[in-house]
Specification:
The protein has 334 residues and is α/β, with parallel strands linked by helices. It contains eleven helices and 14 strands. Bound molecules: uridine-5'-diphosphate-4-deoxy-4-fluoro-alpha-D-galactose (UFG).
């Protein structure tokens, strides 16, 4: 029995693939390389010493997707094949709704046809909008997303809840990621944003690496200890391991729909991140204070207690590992 990973060549998918293979799981990856590189596949094999099947297809192509289900015994699916750039989603709402929402529907429909009803969904803390309470628990109200990307996550969560209501033979895990950073310790796989990065850590490493001139700190007048935005940064390997724990739960329970925050429970400001990066790597990050970025909130960090109690999962890696590993990837791939 194999686990299907649409988008398995991407940042989160590739790290999860490594952890699954290290745990002797059989996986099948499908990817159209819209935001990833074919070389990642060999790197996953190099890190793990394990092989897996790969199909270069678009997961919204029902015919090709069905072929994968016909040719393999797929038992569960972890879907990483979503578009994820907040700013781009504002410019390209049709593409985002089509790829993320229609893609998920096609995938779920094909899964149902082939009797595969175990699904893990990559959701995001963005579904909480401007959170009611901090730290954020899973029962906080969702909604109030400020961009199409975030709304796709919200819609897919709702689709999954409705699907489970209609047929409780499904086993569904919704994982709400906070801010994934870092890379595998080998430095072979990591985050490769196309063009100028939107996210903080990829920007920091490129400034330190002199690929970008200086970092703009978006606002220093938020209601936070130093005025800059506070987020829950989580090491990508910890995040990947959360998927294995989620799968274990779905395999152990007969069915159900489960929702977990994957975060550390600690919030760091933008200035904290710059300082931590400089301290852990010895590099300098040139920055200036700039106006607030539209759509940003002041503070967002998780209460990760539910995942700890029910999945026996907890983030192990701290801010120093996150910074060092992000930098290591850039240095090794210069
Ligand atoms: N920031 C800067 N300068 C930059 C980039 C970011 O100051 O060049 C600041 C932001 O204002 C924010 C913090 O760094 O305070 C983190 O910003 P990111 O863009 O790295 O992350 P966000 O929290 O805005 O968004 C991320 C993901 C989304 C996801 C969300 C969930 O990008 O996909 O977390 O909380 F939805």
């Amino acid at each position: 029995m194999a686990i299907l990973l649409p988008g398995g060549a991407g940042y989160i998918g590739s790290h999860t693939a490594v952890e699954l293979l290290n745990d002797n799981k059989e996986i099948v990856i499908i990817d159209n390389f819209s935001n990833s590189n074919p070389s990642v596949l060999d790197k996953i094999k190099k890190i793990t010493g394990k092989d897996f099947k790969f199909y270069e297809i678009d997961y919204t192509n029902r015919e090709e997707l069905e072929k994968v289900f016909k040719e393999n015994k797929i038992d569960s699916v972890m879907n990483f094949a979503g578009y994820k750039a907040v700013g781009e989603s504002v410019q390209k709402p049709i593409e985002y709704y089509y790829n993320n929402v229609c893609g998920a529907l096609i995938l779920l429909d094909v899964m149902r046809k082939y009797g595969c009803k175990k699904f893990i969904f990559s959701s995001s803390a963005t579904v909480y909008g401007n959170p009611e309470i901090i730290p954020i628990t899973e029962d906080c109200k969702v909604g109030g997303t400020t961009n199409p990307y975030g709304t796709t996550k919200l819609y897919i969560e709702q689709i999954l809840k409705d699907l489970y209501t209609s047929d409780n033979e499904w086993s569904i895990g919704i994982l709400r990621y906070f801010n994934p950073v870092g890379s595998h310790e080998s430095g072979l796989i990591g985050e490769e944003p196309q063009g100028i990065p939107n996210n903080l850590m990829p920007y920091i490493v490129r400034v330190a690496n002199k690929q970008l001139e200086e970092l703009s700190v978006f606002g220093n007048d938020y209601d936070t200890p130093d005025g800059t935005g506070v987020r829950d940064y989580i090491h990508i390997v910890d995040l990947a391991k959360g998927h294995l724990k989620m799968l274990e739960k779905l395999n152990n329970e007969n069915n159900g729909l489960f929702i977990y925050n994957l975060g550390t429970g600690t919030g760091y400001s933008v200035l904290d991140m710059i300082n931590a990066f400089e301290k852990s790597t010895g590099e300098t990050v040139k920055y200036k204070i700039a106006p607030r970025r539209p759509g940003d909130i002041a503070t967002c960090y998780a209460d990760p207690t539910k995942a700890k109690n029910e999945l026996n999962w907890k983030a192990e890696k701290g801010i120093e590992d996150m910074c060092k590993d992000s930098w290591n990837y850039i240095v090794k791939n210069k």
